[in-house]
Amino acid sequence: MTEDTKEQDPRLFTLEKQMETERNRSEEYLNRLRYLQADFENLKKRCDRQLEEAKNYANERIVLQLLDIMDEMELAVRAGQTNGLETQPLVIGIQMILKKLRKVLEQEGVSPIECEGEVFDPTKHNAITKTEREGVKGCIVGQEIRKGYILKSKVLRPSMVAVEVPPSKPSNSQNEKEEEKKENE
Fold first, then answer.
1. If one looks up domain 110-185 in CATH, what number appears?
2. Which pTM value belongs to this model?
């Protein structure tokens, strides 16, 4: 349209202005809608992840209690094996129950942490004692004191272990102090 036409029909100019305003408003609403849709999708994904995680680890508390019972049964088996033949049928019965309990826990995604001879991993192991030993490189798990378990990919209970480390070399100041003690004696 030309300038003359706009001057002749002010209503047309006003309508074009209103149409432009409404177009801008509708674009703004459309952008808001897109952001809200994206937020909704993100919320839905987060809720699905949280629900899946809750399903995977819902039985964690009862599994921990069963692990304590299993530890006590293993202690009973060890004690029964040292007592002699009169407790043998009882020990066999407890071993059968332990086997079934391990199978149930395995079906729920619980697996023991293998650690003896492995490199110490603070996310899976809880060091109780430290022993210096020749020929050891780094920090190695020497003995498992209490078995640890993993539920699917999460450490349910870390293994309590005794670690072996290379012998520490005494510093020069310690060597000098020892030499002074020897000289003074």
1. 2.30.22.10
2. 0.63
- pLDDT band, very low/low/confident/very high, at 182 (cuts 50, 70, 90): low
C-alpha pair distances (Å), 40 with each of 11, 37, 140, 151: 43, 5, 49, 31
Residues 6+ apart with CB under 8 A from 90: 80
Per-residue pLDDT reduced to its tens digit, 67-125: 999 999 998 888 888 877 777 888 889 999 999 999 999 998 899 999 888 889 999 99
